[in-house]
Design goal:
globular, Immunoglobulin-like, mainly beta, 10 strands, 145 residues, single chain, five-stranded antiparallel sheet
Length: 145
């Protein structure tokens, strides 16, 4: 009977750990993967390596020489919600990705980082949600280095 209780407790802990993981945890391979660039202090000295603007807003692929990471920042209508992605070459499917959902209320949003030193990275974002009826996409070109 003691074995059953321990097995059930272990299974419960495993499920709790899986459901508590952030969205990008599956691609995490470096300590900076999936981390907020501002909280991790990687934004200091960072700069945009790619950018694009459309009527939906502006997107920038950011690079941190200090941390060797990329992330995506956008400036959009504060009335819109959506998602931000940053992708890095490599991984099981040819690239690794971090996705970050954002809510309406602010115009400046950023996603989490991927470690991308000596590889390619690119960013994208959806502006608006399907249920809002008007989804637009912002993309950067690849930056390799």
């Amino acid at each position: 009977m003691k074995f059953k209780v321990v097995a059930i407790a272990a299974a419960t802990l495993a499920v709790a750990a899986l459901t508590a993981s952030p969205a990008g945890a599956a691609t995490a391979g470096h300590p900076y993967d999936g981390k907020d660039p501002y909280t991790a202090k990687c934004s200091s000295g960072s700069y945009a390596v790619r950018s694009a603007s459309t009527r939906a807003g502006t997107i920038k692929l950011m690079w941190s020489p200090r941390c060797g990471t990329n992330w995506t920042e956008i400036w959009v209508s504060p009335r819109k919600a959506g998602s931000i992605w940053v992708k890095r070459s490599g991984g099981k499917y040819g690239y690794a990705v971090e996705r970050f959902g954002y809510k309406a209320g602010r115009s400046h949003h950023w996603g989490n980082m991927v470690y991308a030193n000596n590889t390619c990275a690119w960013g994208s974002a959806s502006v608006g949600l399907p249920q809002q009826g008007d989804v637009q996409v912002l993309d950067t070109t690849k930056a390799c280095g």
